[in-house]
């Protein structure tokens, strides 16, 4: 059975016109705690690999200062050069590429902030169409994601369903806050929560990546197996990939989230270093995510089968 997430798309009215504001997406989110001069070259290489993975010339717009403009080869070359030779402790912002003319939401996209790690973690997000891992495509797509991240010096990373949205749009964040409590296996896509990710673990997703130091601090493979014997573990160069189910889960509570796979067990394994999101951390214009409830949503649930479609 293949799922259909098109009905999850949301719209907003802007200047009397209906525009798309929230899209289901396959989202890869990567965090690193290395300083910019060390992590920047790795970010550049990972962005290059992503661009090679996706359809040619599919990325058409970029954030240029406070506006959205046409993405050119020269812009990409300039951004990658800046990543490979950053000014020490410079906050590199505005690396936002998208397949949408409005920048986000989009089917494909890159959003990166390489920052002074005394303050917060570097974050890089990649977007893919939600259908990328459906049916027979799932194994090749999972392998492609592992190849994308295999030598990146991240602390943690996740891959699975999330929402593509314009991060600065408080009305779109209202919609995000309304959707996440129902679709419990979707990732929190707000790029701002990187400030709490230092020395912490994220909420688990279809694929959860941990560097080996963090993996061992949580008890290693034996502890993970005790919590989630159904999960698969793949060794990478400096890290491991924990796969909770065959397909990316949706976790729709209206259907008892029967596709969640081993996410509850992975969540319990990660719990000792769980991200300390404070109340009110994720809020829009009128809505606020119940952070405690969201972070603990898997804690009391049982694991379900690996075959989750």
Question: How would you describe the overall organization of this protein?
Answer:
With 309 residues, the protein is an alpha+beta fold. It has one domain (20-295). The protein is 26% helix and 24% strand. The protein is built from eight helices and eleven strands. Strands 1, 2, 3, 4, 5, 6, 7, 8, 9, 10 and 11 form an eleven-stranded antiparallel beta sheet that branches. Helix 1 (36-53) runs antiparallel to helix 2 and helix 6 (220-227) crosses helix 7. It is globular, with a radius of gyration of 18 Å.
Structural class: alpha+beta
Return the domain count.
1
Parts with pLDDT < 50 across at least 5 consecutive residues: none
Mean residue pLDDT: 92
Count all strands and give the number.
11
H/E series: EEHEEHEEEHEHEHHEEHH
Overall spatial form = globular
N-C termini distance: 6 Å
Measured as a percent range, the helix fraction is: 25-40%
- How is the quaternary structure best described? single chain
Major beta sheet, specifics?
11 strands, antiparallel
List the helices and strands and how they pair.
Blueprint (H helix, E strand, L loop, with lengths): L9 E5 L2 E16 L3 H18 L7 E4 L2 E4 L2 H12 L7 E7 L10 E6 L7 E8 L8 H12 L6 E10 L4 H10 L27 E5 H6 L2 H8 L4 E4 L3 E5 L19 H8 L20 H5 L14
Antiparallel strand pairs: 1-2, 2-7, 2-8, 3-4, 3-5, 5-6, 6-7, 8-9, 9-11, 10-11
Helix pairs in contact: 1-2, 6-7
